[in-house]
Amino acid sequence: MAKRKSSMPKPINPKDFLSQKFLEKQKELQNQFIKQMQENADGDYSVSYELAVTMRAYHALSEYKINPELFNVYPEGFEIDDAKMLLNFFCYCVNNNRDIPEELNEYLKDAFEKILKGNLSYDRCLNLAGRKEKHPYHPPEYLKEITEDILNKGLTLSESCKEKQIKTGKNYKTLMQHFGEYSETLLYGWFFFQEMNGKRITYEQLKSYQKKAIQKYFNNQVHENYK
To answer: Are 72 and 116 in the same domain?
Structure first.
């Protein structure tokens, strides 16, 4: 059987675009987040405002560094505006005497240079306008859940998609089609998520049912970082 061709571009490795210092800061923020969650009593899983907004800012900056052309683009149903959030974060840092990340200064420099050229509106220069609805590296959340169903729970693609019909309001055949479009990106994201949570695994370490699922549903397209 011929391999299914994906319309999505190849997944990217954040380590190819982000400095070691930046990645270490992201990991530090993640550890602080886990610590605050563990320290909170009585099921209160909230974290401090400063930590939450800083984590969001670093995530947004990583998206910008990796692919500025696709910055502030999210899949359907996402009410997120990273560009506005970064402006708010800059003001927060100034107002509260916090260090401004080097990457945020670079982001603002790029925006100001566009303004000075005078070819675009201020909103577009600041990434506040012209957002798209489909991001090739940001699959809709329901597709990530389907991936987890397959690789974490052992469900078939059909079983998971049928379960998600009510939640998403989409026919299971449509869900399967969407999954096929993003399958390689979804698989890379699953491996990367394990690594970010301190559970780095390679293909050889997977369970038998996971390897079979990768061959059947993901075209066996394991990123070279996890082979």
So the answer is: yes
Angstrom distances, CA of residue 108 to CA of 55, 87, 101, 127, 183 = 18, 9, 11, 10, 34
Task: Quote the pLDDT of residue 24.
Answer: 80
Asked if 55 contacts 31 with a C-beta cutoff of 8 angstroms, the reply is: no
Shared domain for 40 and 111, answered yes or no, is yes
* Residues 131 and 88: beta-carbon distance below 8 Å: no
Answer whether residue 132 is part of any domain.
no
pLDDT in the model for residue 15: 55
Separation of alpha carbons 26 and 23, rounded Å: 5
What one-letter code names the amino acid at 129?
A: A
Q: Are 43 and 217 in contact (CB under 8 A)?
A: no
pLDDT tens digits, 147-192: 999 999 999 999 999 999 988 888 989 999 889 888 888 998 899 8
**Contact indicator for 126, 82 with CB cutoff of 8 Å:** no
Sign of CA dihedral 45, 49, 50, 54: positive
- pTM over the 0.85 mark: no
Number of H-type helices and E-type strands within the chain: 10, 0
State how many domains the chain has.
2
Among 70, 92, 125, the domain-final residue is 125
* Last-in-domain residue among 100, 125, 150: 125
* Ranges of the chain whose pLDDT falls below 50: 1-9
**Shared-domain flag, residues 19 and 121:** yes
Collapsing DSSP to helix, strand or coil, 50 comes out as helix
